[in-house]
Amino acid sequence: MGRKKLPITVLFSVVLLTLAFIPISTQQSASDYDPWNDINDDGKIDIKDVASTAIKFGTSGDPAKNVTIVGYATVTETEWITIPAGGFHYKYIDTQGYRQISVGFDGTATIPFNIIVSWHVSGGTYQIDSFTNNGRTLKVYEVQGQRLQIYINNLNTVTEYIYVDYYITA
Ligand SMILES: [Ca+2]
Fold this sequence. Notes:
Layout: H1 6-21, H2 47-55, E1 74-83, E2 88-94, E3 100-107, E4 113-121, E5 124-133, E6 135-142, E7 147-153, E8 160-169
Antiparallel strand pairs: 1-8, 2-7, 3-6, 3-8, 4-5, 4-7
Helix pairs in contact: 1-2
The protein binds calcium ion.
Residues 38, 40, 42, 44-46, 48-49 line the site of calcium ion.
């Protein structure tokens, strides 16, 4: 056995001895399950979690934990947009940290709305889609940028309205 492994072995032995002296009356454990102690996330605290901690004994660093939040992982929003004759509207949706976005367009105009969708990344923007909308159009995109940029052009000679709704998933 190398000198380096000795402190871990000693610590491991102490942990095993401690476990041996925990009252057996509770059968499984002296306290309730705590997911923060379940190092390998297999739903039970056992010797594998103890071993994993023992290996890291003596190390130090930033205690902030990288976690996945369950629930609240989606964003839903709807908006009525008014666009004057011959005008346009830019809509920006922040998608940083999300996986997928679904965008719905609801508008009826004599001449359909002209819509251009782009991703904004730190280096600039790049177009991913271009279509006309008259009625309901639903688009689904995998997140490939920090924000989705939607350009809507009203080609009519009167003010038109379009309803935009979106749903972002983590
Ligand atoms: Ca475990």
